Amino acid sequence: MQAQASECSKFLECYENFNYNINSNGERFVLETLARQPLTCIFDVGSNIGTWALLAHQCFPNAKIHCFEIAKATQETLKRQTKGLSNIIVNNFGLSNRAGKTTLKFYPQARAASSIIDFPHPSDYVLSKASVTRGDLYMQKHGIMHVDFMKLDVEGAEDRVLQGFSNALRNRLIDVIQFEYGRVNILTKFLLHDFYALFREHGYRIGKIYPNYVDFREYSFAHEDFLGPNYLAVREELADHLGLAG
User: What does 122-182 look like in DSSP terms, one character per residue?
Assistant: First the structure.
């Protein structure tokens, strides 16, 4: 019986797209589908080594892609990966709900898991200070009036980053936002329900990303499964015109 339960659990994870490979979990599908649109400004918040940013560059070769990576060692790899691509801007700080310094839990052997959230990852880690700012301040400083697409992959700090874009959200300056939701949200206590409430307040429709479509749906307690991994919030008036829905 235990073996059967384990197999059922694995099946459900597969069925619910518990997959972090951007080439097969729907992230590539989203970018390639949106490539039909004239996107010119993209934010990659939590860029890691640049895998997603480079894919975005392939889909939108003329767009400015603003990368934000909080971990210094990872920043250096990101700069090497994007060297020579003048439209990819690498910022050596992260985004959050305030400007200043924060404590980063950095995993040298698992850099993608590094976070300002104290998640109990099994790898060894180093605590360090890192710089952050608010997204609204960044947009103001650089004269950015509109963001076409923003990807959030910040290991549980998504709600803090969104708080830092309160002005942009209130004034409908960001069209599409991809965000992660998963087990770390048990610790942050910012649930899928809270994402829905926040985005609905600002006129977005929310859907879960699957390999070849986005399931735009109303919130249900059954969806609070902490599997994720990726959801999409699209301004209500645009959702039916982007070709993303199944």
Answer: SS--EEEEEEEEEHHHHHHHTT---EEEEEE--TT-HHHHHHTTHHHHHTT-EEEEEEE-S
How large is the average pLDDT for residues 120-133?
94
The residues facing 205 across adjacent strands are 234
What CA–CA distance (Å, rounded) separates 32 from 19? 18
Which tens digits make up the pLDDT trace of 4-52? 767 767 766 887 998 999 999 999 999 999 999 999 999 999 999 999 9
Maximum alpha-carbon separation in the chain:
60
The reply to whether the predicted model has a pTM over 0.90 is: yes
Residue 126 has pLDDT above 80, yes or no: yes
What whole-number distance in Å separates Cα of residue 86 and Cα of residue 42?
Answer: 14
Helical spans, DSSP H, in the chain: 2-15, 27-34, 51-59, 72-81, 135-141, 158-163, 166-170, 184-188, 192-201
Q: Scanning the structure block, which residue is given the tokens 């059967």?
A: 4
Tell which residue, 65, 85, 69, has the closest CA to residue 147: 65
Query: Cis peptide leading into 211, omega within 30 of 0?
Result: no
Q: Please check whether residue 179 is in contact with residue 195, taking contact to mean a CB–CB distance below 8 angstroms.
A: yes
List % helix, strand, coil for the chain (3-state, nearest 5): 35, 25, 40
Report CA torsion sign: 178, 16, 203, 166.
Answer: negative
Q: pLDDT digits over 147-160, tens only?
A: 999 999 999 999 99
Read off the DSSP letter of residue 43.
E
